[in-house]
Amino acid sequence: MLRRLFEEREGDDGLPGRARKLALLAMITGTQMAVLDNGIVNIALPTLADELSISGSQSIWIANVYQLVTAALLLTFAALSRRLGRHRLYIGGLAIFTVASLGCALARSFEFLLVTRALQAVGAAAMLSIGPSLYRIIFPTRLLGSAIGLSALTVAFGIAAGPSLGGLILHVASWPWLFAINVPIGVMALALGIRSLPREAPQRGRIDIWGALFSIVMLAGSVFALDQFGHGEGGAMALVTLSIALASLGGFIYRQRHVQRPLVPLALFAEPRFSFAAATSTFAFLAQGVAFVGLPFLYQTVMGVSPIMSAVLFTPWPLVIMIIGPLAGRLADKRNPALISSVGLGLFLLGMLALTGLGADSSHFDVIWRTALCGIGYGLFQAPNNREMIGSVSVELSANASGVLASVRTFGQSLGTASVGLILGLSFGSLTLSLWLGCVSVMVALALSLYRVPLAARARHR
Description:
Elements: H1 2-5, H2 17-39, H3 45-51, H4 56-84, H5 86-106, H6 110-138, H7 144-172, H8 177-180, H9 182-196, H10 209-230, H11 235-258, H12 267-270, H13 272-302, H14 307-314, H15 316-332, H16 337-355, H17 364-391, H18 398-425, H19 431-451, H20 453-460
Helix pairs in contact: 2-6, 2-7, 2-9, 3-4, 4-5, 4-6, 4-10, 4-18, 5-6, 5-9, 6-18, 7-15, 7-17, 10-11, 10-18, 13-14, 13-17, 13-18, 13-19, 15-17, 16-17, 16-19, 16-20, 17-18, 18-19
Domain Major facilitator superfamily (MFS) profile: 23-457
Protein name: MFS transporter
Main location: membrane
């Protein structure tokens, strides 16, 4: 598959074959660090609480601030990329992330670590907001699905390897090395990115400042409120924050309709294929968020397995995505991507329904084949659906499409996480009910995906 990505044909758009290799390595390295750092710290929170002399609840903010800042800036950075040029924004984000990683490693106080983690998130948001759109100009259109499939593999590996890599580093070294490891890798990625990423002339014009402010409050407020609900800390603060986020959503939509140069051009959503792909992605990521949070609780509290065994039982899901994702992306270059996504969602639904049947007496094999089925389905869904989102709009709008893609992923996962916490916090709540909520979410995603199949079919025959 990799050899195919670098083959050159007459009339290809994108970069020449050798330049693609270096650009791909720079993209994979930066994306991998940004994704890994979202999960690698979680396993170290008890250690950080001890060594920084803070409470467990305070230590959670070392993880939360990263997700919160990243979510808040995705749409703004996607729009800013048109003013700066995508290569400048990506390289700048990578530089900020690398320097901030060094700051995290040198931190000796909770407050300083929070500040440097927030700076890490600024760099991560710059990279993640435009990653898929950079693939659009690095690779020929005929290989876009394969390239995005490789991107899905990178993200899946980051999700799977984060806790394990964090545990391994803590086993052989102290916690600052969780961050220090990014420095040499980041320097290498910077050198590759400066040399190989395709250059773009910046577009003239001002960024929509009010739209950016509305989007930051909207995204950060919703993620914060959902996180509070998910930890059983809803109360007045979470409700007020959610209300402010919803009001900002209204202000954001109004602003986008009436400003000459909107932060997110509404022309994106005038394309039905893009709108349906975005909505489908939101519900699919909601279901994945439910499963990713609910299953470890199910394994440990219902089945009584150890945390290490819980991680092992969960591994088939992201591991299978790593295998299926690139294949699905390649298939999407040749066949109807909406149809492939729908088949994937159907398998994902079967896997989620099977997970609801797990109980205290379930064997490890019962768990493994169910989680593997979910991974097969999600792997078939994700890369073709992402290809639809990025490939259904013009190159000029692809950076904005990339920002929307990253935003719906973050929002969907946050909503799924919060849903599990809310259900578990209710007296009638149960882990099985959480999984059933995930099933309903997949059903909605599947219905949306099936509806757009003929739209994608007509687009392929134009």
